[in-house]
Amino acid sequence: MLKFIIxxxxxxxxxxxxxxxxxxxxMHSLPTSYVETMARELATKPGSQKSAAQWLAELNxxxxxxxxxxxxxxxxxxxxIKGNFGDSWYYNIPVVDEFKKVIxxxxxxxxxxxxxxxxxxxxxxxxxxxxxxxxxxxxVTVVSLIGISLPTFFVATVMKLIFAVKLGWxxxxxxxxxxxxxxxxIQQFFDVxxxxxMPIITLTVISIGGxxxxxxxxxxxxxxxxxxxxxxxxxxxxRTVINHHAFRNTLIPIVTILGGSxxxxxxxxxxxxxxxxxEGIGYASYHAMISGDIPFTMFYLSFMAILxxxxxxxxxxxxxxxxxxxxxx
Length: 329
Description:
The protein is mainly alpha-helical. The chain has a domain at 102-302: MetI-like (MetI-like fold, Orthogonal Bundle), CATH 1.10.3720. The chain has helices at residues 2-28, 32-43, 52-63, 69-81, 95-130, 135-149, 152-166, 185-223, 226-233, 238-261, 270-276, 281-290, 294-322, 324-328.
């Protein structure tokens, strides 16, 4: 098992190296005029304490833009390993500091949606498989297809129209109400939680469809296995056959998917956060990218690459844990 994990980690490290090289190459290929223009704009911002020449020199020093691609990349990689990603052009503070401010909002949002997805999608997928070709099965299938097909912005718009405009239960966007500062700590907590309701529902609606279909398909495959027919032939109650034998084996592939999704809890939901003005990493990266913030963009792309590879690594490890045949092969 240790050999298996070390092998996967080495492969992930090699892939990450080349992904970061691609990210740096793209940024290094930006026209010099663009970088100089951004430096001049930053120098004219209110509160800026650096001149255009200083901004430009800082960029070149931090990212090696005045060097070749390979030399500049290793220079930037050395700084990145130390956790030094420079100052954000848009937020005018160190990139890592802005990241620390917003990452936990994304985590709370993603975790709530993740938990709801598990408790809604998996039971419905199992029920649909147990009652194949029934009204329940067709209903779950329709719901899952709707969830898979609907784009995020459409679901968010419908949520706003119904619950914010028509019913007036929630604010259209933002994380805090008008009277936030006048509330006590407990009231402030519930005020923020209230603003998270629609984004969480939006993320849940667009994510449960795929998990329901996946659970149903795997459950049907298990229910048609020989050992399930043997368990039924022995006279075991149907509840025992489903819950004790079938469901446990259905969880093997599901666990790997859910495990691989865990790092994604820190990735943020760029579209959802932007539509509801939730100040998470997705919201911050969107505004940084459309403003031409090279330091924050390079950090965010590298961060997403690390999360993606980490999710794949966790999936591989979990699959090897729950299915020994993977380690043997």
